[in-house]
Every structure is written in C-alpha cells, then in structure tokens.
Amino acid sequence: MTQVETITSGADKAKLAAAALLVVGGLAAYFLLSAKGGLVQWSALLALLAAGVVVFFTSESGKSLIGFGRDSWREVQKVVWPTRKESLQMTGYVFAFVLVMGLFLWLTDKTLEWVLYDLILGWKR
What we know:
Layout: H1 10-32, H2 38-58, H3 60-78, H4 84-120
Subcellular location: Membrane
Organism: Inhella inkyongensis
Function: Essential subunit of the Sec protein translocation channel SecYEG. Clamps together the 2 halves of SecY. May contact the channel plug during translocation.
C-alpha cells in the first residue's frame, strides 16, 4: 500500500507558498519588465526562480526530494554496467534474433498465403 505524505506544519506550508509565489513573481517580472530590456528581464526571472528553488529546498518536501536524489544516486552507483564487448555481443544477439524472427514470420506469412489462396480457394495470381 502506498503511503501518502501530507504537509502538516504551518511553517512548511508557508515555505511552499512562498516558493510558489517567488516562481510566479519571477514569471510576472519577466513580462512586466519587457520595457527595461532583456538583461533586466532575465536577471529578475533567474533571481526570483533561484530564490523560489532555495525556499523550496528548505521545506520538508524539498529535503525529502534531496534525500530521494541521494538514495537514487547511491543505487545508480551499485549498478554493474556491461563492458563494451558485452554490449556489442548483446546487440549482435538482438540483431540476429530480429533477423531470424523476421525471416520466420515472412516464411509463415507466405506459407499461409499459398495454402489459403492457391490450395484452398484456388486463386491463381
């Protein structure tokens, strides 16, 4: 059964709301500052987005996301990656299997076509 995580702390809710407002404020600033020039627009957007990200990562949701990322990275490091030789061999096996299966399906199709149309129905093309 999947466990649903809810935000219970008022301070945590405030942090998430502040992060959302900073992101929305960054987007609004980008469009409202169009008369000031591109440098001012992009600076305001990037600064407010960065502030929103920082505030988000100080919340419990942000901290759990960071923990999830760390756990995921540890799991990726445990993966035993195949060597180049093993990769090429497996790729060759897959290509050979696809070729053999394609040939088998083509022969099956042509055999069924011959049986149905030529022998049973008597249609000569």
